[in-house]
Structures are given as structure tokens and as C-alpha cells.
Amino acid sequence: MDEIAAESQRLWGAPNAFVTADDCRRAVRSLAEAKVVCAAMDERLEAWVVKTRVRDADGEMFDGDDLLEYWRRRAKDMCEVFLKTLVNVGGRLESCSTTPKHRDSLLRVVEGYVTGGVQRKLFKVGIHPKFAREDEITAIRLEQLASLPIDALGLEVERYAKVVDDEDIIASLSSLGDLSSPSHMATRLVDVSTRIRQAGGDEDDPMNADDLLLVLLALVARAKPERAYSLVRYVETFHALVSNAHKGEEGFALANFSGAVRYARGDACGAIIEKSSTARLE
């Protein structure tokens, strides 16, 4: 194996090594052959404007869902341009066009680099203002759910009481919105799901999917991640812009988190809360 091939394997041989936006930035900024490309992308990310007044072909203003898709397309376009330009510089990036695992690594790096560069703007200017009311509704519902005994959710107290009060898991969920990119958040959710399954089951009696969702619901209610609805919409929309990360563990963990927040907002949870409140008054 020649020197460049060995270095390429060291750089790109482990796609899961790229978790944070800083991981992704370091990976390509460390390469002399990518210096000019990275500088150009940094300028583009800095100049990127989060447009909130966009009209469709009929002249109607985009609603929140339309804007999410519009922002997603623009971010994906940047990823695709960045990816193509990086591969074309050759050197230690050349193997990313021919070796599947190396390409997977570069796809994750490109996503983290781009989303990490626009995330703060998206939250501040776009997503948080657009979904402020939904975030308020979600926060109220999570507060109500946090006060319920877990058997009201259909969970076995003896089996899951300690799990839903796990301070480390609660802290991990509470700080989810502070993480640097959608992939970073999805990776955190994989870790959370793993710890829940380990604490709530074993090889002889593993947790079923329904219990996993309900335990996660109880934990999210206790964690109260800031702007939980905005967070769900963001990660759902911007995770795996060009990679296939959504097909693996990250996608599964993200779907569970999204499902828990959406279930919290739904009529079924509303009925559980009302029933529990009525029972306490009797």
C-alpha cells in the first residue's frame, strides 16, 4: 500500500468517527489539497441567508413546512457542490470516489461541515420563530406528562421506574439542542436508545418497541429539551442530506425520538393526562 493509499485509509476508513461538526471540519481542513475548497465553502456558509419570505409559483407565501423543505434543498445543494469539488481535488480525497467506505465517510463529513455552518442561523432566524407556538404547546404538554406516574402511560413501575429517572439519560436529552449538527444529535439519540434498552431489559427479556417509545416519552418529558418541536422538525429535515445515515441506527433512534415528541402532542396523551387529572380530583 503506497503512502497516499495508507493515509486515505487512515482518514476515511471509519465513517462513524465523524460525529461533531468540528470532527468534520478538522477532517478536510487538515488537508492541504482541500484548503482552497474549504475557504470557499466557509465564505459561502458565512454569506448564507435564511430566507423566511418565499412564495410558491402561485404567489402564495410558504408556510413552515414549505420553508423547511426549501431550506433543506438549499443545504443539500451546498453539500453536493462541496462533495463534488472535494473529490475533484484528488490526493488523499481521490479514494472517496472509488472506495464505498471512504465515500460514506466523506458524505458524513460534508453534511456535518455544511449543517454545522448553517445550524445557528437556521434556528435563530428560521425554525425557532416559525414554530414558536408549536414549541410552547409541546412544552406545556411535556410538563403535564412529567408529573404523571409512569403506570398512567402503561409502563410497569417495578421494571421502568429507575430507567425514567436516570439522570444521565435525562441530561443527554435535555442538552440535545446544544449539539453541533443533525448527525451529532442523531448519534446522541443512538446512545440514549442503547442505554434505555440496557437498563430496561436483557437478553432473556428485551424491551419491546412500544415500551421503548413510552420510556423515551417519559424521559423526554422529564428532560424538557428546549424547543422540542423545533428540534424534531430540524433533525428530521436536515439529517442525512446526502448520506444514507437515516437507514441505520441513527435513523431508528431519530424516528423513536420524533415519535415520542409527536405522541406527547397527540390526542391519546391528552386523554391520558385528562384521565389522570380527573382521578386525582376524585
TrEMBL record:
**Matching InterPro entries, A to Z?**
UPF0507/Ank_repeat_27, VPS9, VPS9_dom_sf
- Sequence ranges assigned to domain VPS9 in this UniProt record: 132-273
Domain of life assignment: Eukaryota
A single GO CC term for this protein reads: plasma membrane
Q: Which residues cross the membrane?
A: none
Pfam families for this protein: VPS9
Q: Which GO terms describe its molecular function?
A: guanyl-nucleotide exchange factor activity; SNARE binding
GO biological process annotation, one example: early endosome to late endosome transport
Quote the PROSITE patterns the UniProt record gives: VPS9 (PS51205)
Q: What protein does this entry describe?
A: VPS9 domain-containing protein
